[in-house]
Each structure stands twice: as structure tokens, then as C-alpha cells.
Automatic annotation (TrEMBL), chain A:
Name assigned to this protein: tRNA N6-adenosine threonylcarbamoyltransferase
Domain of life where this protein originates: Bacteria
Keyword Protease tagged: no
Keywords assigned by UniProt, alphabetized: Acyltransferase, Cytoplasm, Iron, Metal-binding, Transferase, tRNA processing
Places the protein is found: Cytoplasm
Similarity comment: Belongs to the KAE1 / TsaD family.
HAMAP family reported for this sequence: TsaD (MF_01445)
Cellular component annotations (GO), alphabetically ordered: cytoplasm
Automatic annotation (TrEMBL), chain B:
Organism domain of life: Bacteria
PANTHER family per the UniProt record, alphabetical: TRNA N6-ADENOSINE THREONYLCARBAMOYLTRANSFERASE, TRNA THREONYLCARBAMOYLADENOSINE BIOSYNTHESIS PROTEIN TSAB
GO biological process: tRNA threonylcarbamoyladenosine modification
Species for this entry: Salinicoccus halodurans
Gene3D superfamilies: 3.30.420.200, 3.30.420.40
GO terms for cellular component: cytosol
Domain Gcp-like, residue spans: 31-147
InterPro entries per record: ATPase_NBD, Gcp-like_dom, T6A_TsaB
Protein's name according to its UniProt entry: tRNA threonylcarbamoyl adenosine modification protein YeaZ
Length: 340, 218
């Protein structure tokens, strides 16, 4: 019988201070997330220095709460995991230094985790991953299509060439006059509108799995400006619906093409934008038609959290992918090579 | 009593283990390396050098600013997490006082850190053997204003870490490398802290918040 692996994980790559305790990569013993969103709203986006300041305010509190909610003592832990990157460097450094200090104090192995690997493994908290698989990561900082033939094997088959999809959502939301963060508001309005504007679908060159949302974003902004100049009123709901339809069409088409070409058994969608209802519905119907297994985590595992870091860390533990005390944060890490 | 002391406020880094106020082991550097990568490694090293078990530490003392925002945060994060995990007491000390104490000077001393655009983080202390008075509390101030205030004192000595960009605008200064272990000679400089509430003393709100407050002045 193999011994249970209980990992305390920390995530501070952007504006959530999070700590979680996960057993064997899937059983959640605790999952504490302190969101800073209320503080960043006034700036219309996440301010790195402000995010770093909030992380240091709450870091030991979230660790303490994660342990007490799990009813665990540090002695019962197998390892400490932490997001190494990518992310805001100053924000990452708070989590990394806390993780190093904690692992040093309790003589625990330290596992550095790639943030995107975390988002992918968020799905493992709800069901087993079936390989080979394709994962679509959509968030405020990332838009990537990743092929995995096995655990910890990541091949980036497509990525955004400019804006991340969540970034495009936030900018469009701002132009229509919606508060930050705009994604959920656009999604909500979109349900009440019609696709009347026929914005472009940026498919790029045939066969490419890359994405580009800056042209679409500009098309939306220009349209709104044109209406305003003519003194005409734009129907917010229709702009939201038209923009969302374009985004969802492109994400769905490219992802389903990849699923077909790579002959996968499982499609994962993850990241904050995976909470988008329009996107969920589109993938649910496409996968149902194909008879393909689809996993989209529930909302709390789509946005940044530490449980997903613990889920990925479990496999890294098996591989003994440990860091020494000189671990540093990195704002960019190649996911294809990080676990090797 | 065993103490672990940490200062990563600026480019220099200083860590020490003291026994009853006497330094058993210390590492002090002024090289341009990322504190985030070196701090825990150096702490591990001084425990080995001093031959002390980490579980035997009674208190942790951290320089909690002012200084580089990121630098101060690294020291404070490590200090509060270690104090939490090792269940020790936690104390803070002004990063400017660390310089004052490290200078081994008596009389009026003025440690300064660069705060950009002609401004500094500075304080004025009257240092005596094992005691001191705080003449001007740590502040974010223009270098010119501070020079004006210094005129009131008898032969004040300016302390810089020698890499400060404004060293050419100061007529005379003494190069002082922080040695955090020395602050335990001045118990009155240490402030008892709670682990979960300790935050850096940045002495400045962030630029984004400044701009926001400016725009939202009613």
C-alpha cells in the first residue's frame, strides 16, 4: 500500500492569495482563497505593486487557515508546493519566499509548479484525466492550446499572438462602460443580445492553432466610436453578444480541430474565462455531438486557486521534481520544458 | 536567548544568529544578487555555521523598511513565515536604524536610502553606547529638506551604503554595510509584532494609489 501524499500548496501569481491542502492530487482537504479584486477595482485592473502588498498582508493567515480547516499539523504533510511562474514577479515572490521558509522550517520537500499546469490539473480535482488530451487555457493572462500525451507532458500547439482572451474581454467591457473585471458582465449582457454586428472571426492562416484577439478588440472599439460620433445609440447587449460570439466561435473551432487532428480522448477547458457561460455551452454541444469527454472545472477552480497547484504538484512529487532553497520566481517559464 | 535576524531592505543583505545579543554567525553581502534566490540559502548556511537547530530559535527580528519595496517584502515574508512555522516571537526594526547601529558611531547619524527624484528615506538618531534617541523618525523626504533639518545639529554624520545614486549630492558620508546582528544591542529599537499583522513599513503608498487619491480628492 502506498502512503498518502498530502501537499500544502501556495499560489500568489496575480491577485489571489491562496493556500490549499490536497491529498493524493485530488482530495481537497482545504482550499483558502483571499481575493484582492475589491482593492483593484478602483484602478480598473490589477496593479502589481498593490497586489504584492496585499499578498504579504495575508500570506501567513491563508497558510494557517488552510491547515486548520484541513485539521492538519505540518508534521502530517508530505511536501510544500508553490507557483513558480508565470505571473507578476513581485506577487510570485511573496508566495515563493513563504513556501521556502515553510518548507525549511518543517524539513519538507519544495515543489515548484507552473501556473498553467495548475490550471490544467484543476480538472483532476473533479475527475481523472484521460490521455491523450487537449487542454484549452483561457484567462486574463493566457490563451493556449496544449496537447498532453501523458501526465506532465505539455506540448503547446497554439497560443495567442497578442491579447489574452480575458484581456480582450476586459478592454471591450471598459469601452461599453462596464466595471472591472468585465468578463462576467459581458457574458451576462451577451445572453440578452443578438449577434447583429458580425465582427470578424480571427482564424489566422489555415491550419494554425494560434489566436489573435487584438484585431477583434479594435473592431469592437471602432464600431462603438463610430456610433458615438454619429450620435447613434449602441445596444450594449448586442455588442456584448456579437463580440462573445466571435470569441466563442474561434475558440471552439480551433479547439475542436485540434481534438480531431490529435485524436484525443478528453478535452479540458480551464482558466478564468472557462467560467463563461457562452463558451461552456458551445463546448458542451460540440463535445456531445462528437461523443467526446469534456471537463470544465466549477467556477472556484477556474479562477486562480492553490488547490490546482497541489493537484499538479502530486505528479511532480512522484517524479521527485523538487527545488532547492535558491528557488526564485520567474515571470515566464516554458511549460514544455519545466517538468524535465 | 537565540535570535535570527534578517535584513533584505536594499541591495545589501544581512542575516545573523545571535545568542544573548552576541553574534554566533552572520552573512553580509553587498553584491547585486536577487535576495529572493539567496535569502533562505544563507539562513540555512548560518544555522549550520552556528551549529544551532532552527527549532531552538526564540525570536526573529526583521528590518521591515523603508527600502526597496520588493526587498523589504522578501525579508518580511520570510520572517513572518518562519516565526509562524517555528512558533517564535517576532520583532521588527527600522531598516534605517540597522544602518545607524551598524555604523558604530556615537553622536548624530543620518542613514539615507535613495527614494528617487531627489527624495530619500531618512532618519536622524543620536547614538550612544547601547542606547539612542530618535531625533527625526524615519521619513520619506526630499534630500534638500533633510539637509536643511540637519543644519540644526552639531556635526551630523551621513551614512550611505555607497551605492546610493545620490552619493554625489552629499558632501561627506560614511559607507556603512548593514550588520543586522548588532541591533540587539539596542533593545529599545525593536518592536514586538504579531505574525499575521506584520507588514512592511514602506513609508509611501504605491504610485497607483497616489494617482487614484489625487484623482478622487473631493
Amino acid at each position: 500500500m502506498t502512503q498518502d501524499k498530502i501537499i500544502l500548496s501556495i499560489e500568489t501569481s496575480c491577485d489571489e492569495t491562496a493556500c490549499s491542502i490536497i491529498k493524493n492530487g485530488k482530495e481537497i482537504l482545504s482550499n483558502v482563497v483571499v481575493s484582492q479584486i475589491e482593492s483593484h477595482k478602483r484602478f480598473g485592473g490589477v496593479v502589481p505593486e498593490v497586489a504584492s502588498r496585499h499578498h504579504v498582508e495575508t500570506i501567513t493567515l491563508v497558510i494557517d487557515q488552510a491547515l486548520s480547516e484541513a485539521g492538519m499539523t505540518p508534521r502530517e504533510l508530505s511536501a510544500v508546493a508553490v507557483t513558480e511562474g508565470p505571473g507578476l514577479i513581485g506577487a510570485l515572490l511573496v508566495g515563493i519566499n513563504a513556501a521556502k521558509a515553510f518548507s525549511f522550517a518543517h524539513d519538507l520537500p519544495l515543489i515548484p509548479v507552473h501556473h498553467i499546469a495548475g490550471h490544467i490539473y484543476a480538472n483532476q480535482l473533479e475527475e481523472e484525466l484521460e490521455f491523450p488530451l487537449v487542454a484549452l487555457i483561457v484567462s486574463g493572462g493566457h490563451t493556449e492550446l496544449i496537447y498532453m500525451k501523458d501526465h506532465l507532458s505539455f506540448e503547446v500547439i497554439g497560443e495567442t499572438r497578442d491579447d489574452a482572451v480575458g484581456e480582450a474581454y476586459d478592454k471591450v467591457a471598459r469601452v461599453i462602460g462596464l466595471p472591472y473585471p468585465g468578463g462576467p458582465h459581458v457574458d451576462r449582457l451577451s445572453a440578452e443580445g443578438e449577434d447583429t454586428f458580425a465582427f470578424p472571426r480571427p482564424y489566422l492562416e489555415p491550419g494554425s492553432y494560434d489566436f489573435s484577439f487584438s484585431g477583434l478588440k479594435s473592431a469592437v472599439i471602432n464600431t462603438i466610436h463610430n456610433y458615438k460620433q454619429k450620435g447613434q445609440e449602441v445596444k450594449q447587449e448586442d455588442v456584448a453578444r456579437s463580440f462573445q460570439e466571435s470569441v466563442v466561435d474561434v475558440l471552439t473551432k480551433k479547439t475542436m480541430d485540434a481534438v480531431q487532428q490529435y485524436e484525443v480522448n478528453h478535452l479540458l477547458v480551464a482558466g478564468g474565462v472557462a467560467a463563461n457561460r457562452g463558451l461552456r455551452q458551445s463546448f458542451e454541444s460540440s463535445c456531445e455531438k462528437k461523443g467526446l469527454k469534456l471537463s470544465i472545472p466549477q467556477l472556484k477552480f477556474c479562477t486562480d486557486n492553490a488547490a490546482m497547484i497541489g493537484a499538479a504538484a502530486y505528479h511532480l512529487y512522484q517524479k521527485e521534481h523538487f527545488a532547492s532553497l535558491d528557488l526564485n520566481g520567474r515571470n515566464f517559464i516554458d511549460i514544455e520544458s519545466f517538468a524535465y | 536567548m537565540l535570535s535570527l535576524l534578517i535584513d533584505t531592505s536594499n541591495r545589501p543583505l544581512s542575516v545573523a544568529i545571535n545568542q544573548n545579543g552576541v553574534t554566533l554567525a552572520e552573512i553580509n553581502t553587498t553584491v547585486k544578487k536577487t535576495h529572493s534566490a539567496t535569502i533562505m540559502d544563507y539562513i540555512d548556511k548560518i544555522f549550520k555555521m552556528a551549529d544551532i537547530n532552527k527549532g531552538d530559535i526564540d525570536r526573529i527580528v526583521v528590518a521591515n523598511g523603508p527600502g526597496s519595496y520588493t526587498g523589504v517584502r522578501i525579508g518580511v515574508t520570510v520572517a513572518k513565515t518562519l516565526a509562524y512555522a517555528l512558533d517564535t516571537e517576532l520583532y521588527s526594526v527600522s531598516s534605517l536604524f540597522v544602518i545607524a547601529a551598524s555604523s558604530n558611531k556615537e553622536g548624530i547619524v543620518t542613514p539615507l536610502f535613495d527614494a528617487r527624484r531627489g527624495n530619500v528615506f531618512g532618519a536622524v538618531y543620536n547614538m550612544k553606547k547601547n542606547e539612542f534617541t530618535e531625533e527625526i523618525v524615519p521619513a520619506y523626504i526630499s534630500l534638500e529638506d533633510l539637509k536643511g533639518k540637519l543644519a540644526a545639529y552639531d556635526s551630523p554624520v551621513i551614512l550611505l551604503d555607497a551605492q546610493e545614486k545620490f552619493s554625489s549630492s552629499v558632501e561627506e558620508y560614511i559607507h556603512t554595510v548593514p550588520r543586522i546582528g548588532i541591533v540587539e544591542h539596542f533593545e529599545a529599537a525593536l518592536v514586538k509584532e504579531e505574525v499575521h499583522t506584520l507588514v512592511p513599513d514602506y513609508l509611501r503608498v504605491s504610485e497607483a494609489e497616489r494617482n487614484w487619491m489625487e484623482q478622487n480628492k473631493s
